[in-house]
Every structure is written in structure tokens, then in C-alpha cells.
Amino acid sequence: DAKTTQPTSMDCAEGRAANLPCNHSTISGNEYVYWYRQIHSQGPQYIIHGLKNNETNEMASLIITEDRKSSTLILPHATLRDTAVYYCIVRRYSGGGADGLTFGKGTHLIIQP
Amino acid sequence: DGGITQSPKYLFRKEGQNVTLSCEQNLNHDAMYWYRQDPGQGLRLIYYSQIVNDFQKGDIAEGYSVSREKKESFPLTVTSAQKNPTAFYLCASSSMGQGAYEQYFGPGTRLTVT
Questions:
Q1: A110 contacts A10 by C-beta, under 8 angstroms
Q2: Which end of chain B is less congested by CB atoms within 10 angstroms, N or C?
Q3: Which residue among B45, B96, B108 places its CB closest to the CB of A100?
Q4: Positive or negative, the Cα torsion across B44, B51, B83, B37?
């Protein structure tokens, strides 16, 4: 699976959009980009995933560049409850198998009041 | 209310004792996983299971054992052979196929061994 690079930490003002970048320059054509977040001392929570096209759900939007070498997770109106560690994970869909995920250190997003 | 339960939330043990962490899910998921998290680090995969009575080692299986006798349950035993057992342990489940990487996590068990 491709390696990902994320900033260690970021700040964002409450009510503003939080844009979290992820670099995955070695991604291959059949690898998906997944985003999870982990609020302190809790289990991680799935946010969104995508392959090529931009995706949006009730939690966030995922923008993937045309060359797929990087992506941005967007939280449109950040609240204090969005303070968490955000993990970007690249994973190949293995056609039926479920063999776990690899979580790096992620980005610690701090929402400032 | 569907979800994953882990118990207990905090667990304290003396060195040299085996300890079993519970994980139950009522999401009807086929796959279940155990991860370990150390302070300031990401999660590392210990074991996973795709079907009852079958499981596979993850990246750091040494010193751990699991069983999968029922679809809903995937207990993890931390044995005395695990050199650094103090950690935050997380259980997860998912469907198979394209949903496999949309994993649902439990609240975790924080194990302290002294």
C-alpha cells in the first residue's frame, strides 16, 4: 500500500472550514484513499473514502487531485467537537478480503474557539 | 442500538498474568480486528478474523492469542509472553468486500501491567 504524509498538527478557527492535506505520491490505480478520525481516548471513526472522484457526505468532503498524488479532507464548518487526530490511509481493495488497516500518526487538528 | 462493545474500559494486571479483553459486535459483520495503540502513535494490527473459527496474524501478533467461536465475539488474550503489554487496545469490525475498510471501532480497553 502507498505511503501517506500528513502534517503533524494544524489549527483552525471554530466555524471556518478545516482543510487537511494528505500526500500519497506513490498511490497506484486501484488504491482508495480513506479518512478516519480519533477523538482523544476513543476508538477511531470512519469519515469518508474515495478513488478518483471527489466525494461528499454529511461529515466531510474529500477532494482528490487529478493525478491522485494528494488529497484534502474538508470539514466545512469546524466545531470544537472536531478536535481530533485525523488519519489518511491508502488501501487497495483486495476483492473480498478484510485484512486490516495501517494507521500512521495522523494530523492533530485543534479547533480554536 | 447497534455497535461494538469492549470491556472493561480500564484493566490492571500484574506482570506474568494472562489477561483476556472482551469484544462483542451486533452489526452482523463478518470481519473483526484487534489493534494496539501506544501513546502518540497510530494503531497497529494484532489479529484479524474474516470468518468464524478462522483468524490471521497481523503485524504484531507475538505474545497475543485470539479465538472466534461466534460471529459476534472476538476476545483477545494478552499473554505473559508479551513484553510490553501496557497499551490502549481497540477492537473493530467490518463487512467483507468493498465495505472492508469502513471499520467500526469499539471504545477501547486501556490495559496497565505493573
A1: yes
A2: N
A3: B45
A4: positive
In the block, residue with C-alpha cell 479518512 = A35
Q: What's the angle, vertex CA A72, arms to CA A68 and CA A78, rounded to 5?
A: 165
* Residue-wise pLDDT tens digits, B24-60: 999 999 999 999 999 888 899 999 999 999 999 999 9
CB contact under 8 Å between A44 and B43, yes or no, is: yes
Tell if the CB–CB gap between B43 and A96 is shorter than 8 Å: no
Minimal CA–CA distance to A43: which of B109, B57, B45? B109
B30: closest chain A residue by CA: A98
* Closest Cα in chain B to A105: B42
**E strand spans, B1-114:** 4-7, 10-13, 19-25, 31-37, 43-51, 54-57, 64-66, 76-78, 87-94, 104-105, 109-113
- Taking the CB of residue B17, how many other CB atoms lie within 10 A of it? 11
pLDDT digits (tens, 9 = 90+) for A53-87: 899 999 999 999 999 999 999 999 999 999 999 99
Q: With 80 as the cut, is the pLDDT of residue B108 above it?
A: yes
